[in-house]
Specification:
Blueprint (H helix, E strand, L loop, with lengths): L1 E10 L4 E8 L5 E8 L3 E6 L6 E8 L4 E5 L2 E3 L6 H13 L2 E11 L6 E2 L2 E10 L12 E5 L1 H10 L5 H26 L8
Parallel strand pairs: 3-9, 4-10
Antiparallel strand pairs: 1-2, 2-3, 4-7, 5-6, 5-11, 8-10
Length: 192
């Protein structure tokens, strides 16, 4: 598809809404209103006890408070990892020495042009929170078992948190399999 026209309908500090017209080589045309977003970073902070840090805040579109992984928008000129480090400090007060990218995904590509970048944050150090003036954030640690139960019961409804949990679980399984495989390898003997 090739965009043949784009008109800005709304612009605010978080995103822009455009109306776009596109056509493919066969002449098939589509028109969409698109929320253009600079992208975001999602942080899965896991401590030495394998607990996950979630934040809870009131979400106007959902009309309720949700438990979710901390996340935030990329600022102009900022990489996803830089945003992850900044947002983790701002929302939770924690910083991390070890960062691993778990995934990137489009949460709602039908009308939102936002790419989310999911990072595992480990080797954590506690510090003061610095939330934005319009944020009231509660932080709490959850065990893997409790988080799994919350997901199974529907208590976790946030998409990035669901993706984060499953990507983290899969990453942990792969790492465990690598460790088991390494243990089965015969030790090479040196020359005598």
């Amino acid at each position: 598809m090739k965009i043949i026209s784009s008109k800005e309908i709304l612009k605010n500090r978080l995103f822009t809404v455009t109306e776009e017209h596109a056509v493919d080589p066969d002449g098939f045309k589509i028109t969409r209103s698109i929320i253009r977003h600079p992208g975001s970073a999602v942080m899965m902070a896991v401590d030495e006890n394998n607990r996950v840090l979630l934040v809870r805040q009131f979400r106007l579109p959902a009309s309720k408070s949700l438990w979710e992984l901390p996340a935030g928008r990329l600022d102009p000129g900022e990489t996803a990892l830089q945003a992850a480090k900044r947002e983790l400090r701002e929302e939770t007060g924690y910083s991390a020495r070890k960062w691993t990218k778990l995934s990137s995904f489009w949460p709602s590509p039908g009308y939102v042009a936002e790419k989310m970048n999911l990072f595992l944050a480990q080797e954590l150090k506690e510090g003061p929170q610095h939330p934005m003036e319009d944020e009231r954030i509660e932080c709490r640690w959850f065990t893997r078992k409790t988080l799994a139960a919350m997901i199974a019961s529907g208590a976790i409804e946030d998409g990035k948190t669901l993706i984060g949990y499953y990507k983290w679980r899969e990453s942990a399984r792969r790492n465990s399999a690598k460790v088991r495989a390494a243990r089965k390898q015969p030790v090479a003997k040196g020359r005598e």
